[in-house]
Specification:
Blueprint (H helix, E strand, L loop, with lengths): L7 H11 L3 E4 L1 H8 L12 E4 L6 H10 L4 E6 L7 E4 L13 E2 L3 E6 L12 E7 L10 H7 E3 L9 E11 L5 E6 L3 E4 L2 E4 H9 L4 E11 L2 E10 L11 H11 L8 E4 L34
Parallel strand pairs: 1-2, 2-3, 14-15
Antiparallel strand pairs: 3-4, 4-5, 6-7, 7-9, 8-9, 9-10, 11-12, 13-14
Helix pairs in contact: 2-3
Length: 298
């Protein structure tokens, strides 16, 4: 029974049999469920809450198309602190689905490496303050000291804030964007690379359903590898090849952010709680590598 929440066919049966009205999924699991949904199915659903991973625009569009009567909310909030939420609307046309604004009694700061407040539009680490911040971790004093600290921006006595380890930025309209984890930020040939930025650009392609980028350690160097899945309605002949994927990213990103390999998967491996299992992603084979034919000088 413990793993049935990951069984799409079982979930489909439960929703239809019981007339479920509210769903709460991580984006990876919602993706998997929507691959089995027919137009007009699940008419009982009125609200879907997504949390736990970055919410790609392609998922937002697909959900709205297949379940037009359901409200879709993108929710962000570590267990240790408060939350933000955003009512999704594909017509807004954002490159990233925002995580919205803080809820009541919650404050969110975007801070730089020295603890300074980042300007609007500049990425930094997300810190959360307010009444909802926990007191710390039970019997883990060192971790509590690392993650929970005094809030220098609050005038309240004893105010504290929580360091999330997530990256974000404020948009000009006062809405937050989630940019991935601190540990998803890597250095390639001396350049700092945000993996979530590459994933977002790859997911813009209409043929791509899911996209994950990792930095793999190979003998002598670290290289970027992109993993992607295609929409089920596409046949193999219509899928983009490695060079097409690479050319799309080259037009959007600096050269050092373009992966050297693109691996097509039937489905992303998932952890027991439904998130993408990055450690289970396979090593790229020869077909996944970006290759160039050699031409003799003239």
């Amino acid at each position: 029974m413990d793993q049935l929440h990951r069984d799409v066919l079982y979930m489909e049966e439960v929703i239809e049999k019981n007339g479920v009205t509210v769903l709460n999924f991580v984006p990876s699991m919602l993706h998997a469920l929507l691959e089995h949904v027919m137009q007009g199915q699940f008419s009982s659903i009125r609200q879907i809450m997504c949390a736990g991973e970055e919410h790609p625009p392609s998922l937002q569009s697909r959900c709205t198309q297949l379940l037009p009567k359901a409200r879709l909310d993108n929710i962000y909030g570590p267990t240790e602190a408060g939350i933000t939420f955003w009512k999704c609307d594909p017509l807004q046309g954002f490159d990233r689905v925002p995580i919205g604004r803080p809820t009541s009694n919650t404050r969110v700061y975007i801070l730089g490496a020295e603890g300074e407040i980042s300007p609007v539009g500049v990425a930094g680490e997300i810190y959360i303050g307010g009444d909802e911040v926990a007191r710390g971790y039970l019997n883990r004093q060192e971790l509590t000291a690392e993650r929970f600290m005094d809030d220098p921006f609050s005038e309240g006595p004893g105010a504290r804030m929580y360091r999330t380890g997530d990256l974000g930025r404020w948009r000009a309209d006062g809405v937050l964007e989630y940019l991935g984890r601190n540990d998803f930020q890597v250095k390639i040939r001396g350049f700092r690379v945000e993996l979530g930025e590459i994933e977002a650009r790859l997911a813009e392609l209409p043929d791509v359903r899911d996209a994950v980028v990792v930095a793999r350690e190979d003998p002598g160097e670290k290289r970027l590898v992109a993993y992607w899945t295609a929409r089920e309605e596409l046949d193999e002949e219509g899928l983009p090849d490695v060079e097409q994927l690479r050319d799309h990213l080259r037009a959007e990103l600096p050269a050092y952010m373009v992966p050297s390999a693109f691996v097509k998967l039937e489905a992303m491996p998932l952890t027991p709680n439904g998130k993408v299992d990055r450690k289970a992603l396979p090593a790229p084979d020869a077909d996944a590598l970006v290759t160039h034919a050699w031409e003799a000088p003239q």
